[in-house]
Design a protein that fits this description.
The chain folds into two domains: about 110 residues, Roll (Urease, subunit C, domain 1); about 280 residues, TIM Barrel (Alpha-Beta Barrel). The chain has 14 helices and 17 strands. By secondary structure, the protein is α/β, with parallel strands linked by helices.
């Protein structure tokens, strides 16, 4: 067992100004320093701040090796962005590329305090791709993760279904779908048979083109089409939902699905601003993701706050405590679907947490702790220590897991992509 003492401890629900934590794989004991009596191996926290590890609820690990690549494309709309950039890129990914992407991504996640992810994967090699991710993310880096393959008519449908079912049966999978504009009714009928009651993970109305395509080709909105095929299963993740209408919002809330917002990606792709009031009036669970655009989950929670105010047209349209509550509920969601126990610094929970050098410029207490975390820690700080399942993944800013950066693989991948330009 290990101990860290003389800490500020905050888990979005409780705050301890001068506390300690004793942990192994699980958190064993947490309390005020006046009650500390342990003689275990210890680190003096020297007033540092401890918070739970972060979760990325919607990302694309495969996008890592895209960085710096010039696709010589100038897409004018979202469909062109898919056709001319992302679908040309991911269709050329081989299993070894996926493994390297995951190693780089995990290293960057941990440096940014992310200890759990839900990945939405796509690659030219379908079969075995999620096992490659699993072996790197869970087995090598010791992070928590949920997986799915982005089922689409541009791939072999049977392979996509089998890859998803493999993860669902292992207990760490959702059933993945790409935007419905890439799936026919015939495909959705087959998916319905195999997905059964499994939560799905799907792109929904990221751009208005997705909605327009659905209405034009099928006479109904994207969410209505999902419902038609019985795919709005409880705890499903509907990513983006930037362009849904009130009826779709009501349906999502009634079916107890969650929406994973990706504010920075939405700005980057110029697809619009989500309707925050629509989510709140329909009691929709809000999660946060990066959509593969980096690993900075802290930034995404901040952009949710700022873009949400823009969405409501009111500088007081979102109070800070709403964001805190979304974070608390998002941990509960992850625990429910994954069987984990994260998000609380409490006895019996998994020892997944971060320790920051944070010297409050103003008094910090239980009433304003989240304000300090949100505007101070989330804004720029990097964790000195990252612990996942009781193991130091980042120790005194130094990554503890090594991997080889294979530029030869990247060069081969980029050359293959060049064949499609």
């Amino acid at each position: 067992m290990k101990a860290i003492i003389n800490l500020k401890i905050y888990d979005y629900e409780n705050y301890i100004d001068n506390g300690y934590i004793i942990f192994d794989k699980k958190i064993i004991e947490v309390g005020h320093m006046d009650g500390f009596k342990s003689s275990h191996e210890r680190i003096d926290g020297k007033g540092k701040l401890l918070i739970p590890g972060l979760v990325n609820f919607h990302t694309h690990v495969y996008s890592t090796l895209f960085r710096g690549l010039d696709m010589k494309a100038s897409p004018q709309n979202f469909k062109e962005l898919l056709d001319d950039v992302w679908w040309k890129f991911d269709s050329r990914l081989l299993l070894e590329d996926i493994g390297l992407s995951a190693e780089v991504y995990c290293d960057e996640c941990l440096k940014s305090g992310v200890t759990s992810i839900i990945d939405h994967h796509a690659s030219g090699e379908v079969s075995g791709s999620l096992d490659v991710l699993r072996n790197v993310i869970i087995k090598k880096f010791g992070m928590k993760a949920m997986f799915c393959f982005e089922t689409s008519d541009r791939f072999d449908l049977g392979e996509c279904i089998r890859e998803n079912l493999h993860s669902v049966n292992l207990g760490d999978g959702l059933f993945g779908l790409h935007a419905l504009m890439s799936l026919s009714d015939e495909s959705l009928e087959k998916i319905k048979i195999y997905a059964k009651n499994s939560p799905i993970h799907v792109h929904v109305a990221e751009s208005i083109e997705d909605e327009e395509h659905s209405i034009r080709e099928y006479g109904m909105t994207v969410v209505d089409r999902l419902d038609k095929f019985g795919l709005l299963n409880e705890d499903s993740i509907l990513a983006h939902c930037v362009n849904i209408n009130d009826r779709e919002g009501e349906l999502i809330g009634r079916k107890k699905c969650a929406v994973a917002l990706n504010p920075t990606s939405n700005m980057n792709n110029a697809v619009g601003i989500f309707d925050y009031n629509l989510f709140t009036r329909n009691n929709i669970k809000i999660l946060i993701g990066t959509d593969g655009l980096g690993v900075n989950v802290m930034r995404e929670w901040q952009n949710l706050y700022y873009m949400g105010k823009q969405s409501t047209g009111n500088p007081s349209g979102i109070v800070l405590d709403e964001i805190r509550n979304h974070i608390v509920e998002s941990y509960r969601y992850f625990n429910r679907i994954s069987g984990s126990r994260i998000g609380r610094i409490k006895s019996g929970y998994d020892a997944d947490f971060l320790v920051f050098d944070y010297n409050p410029p103003t008094p910090m207490n239980s009433d304003n702790a989240f304000g300090h975390v949100f505007f101070g820690v989330f804004d720029s700080m990097k964790p000195r220590y990252v612990i996942a399942d009781g193991h130091y993944k980042i120790n005194d800013y130094k990554p503890q897991i090594e991997f080889e950066m294979r530029h030869d693989l990247v060069n081969d991948l980029w050359e293959r992509i060049g064949e499609t330009l």
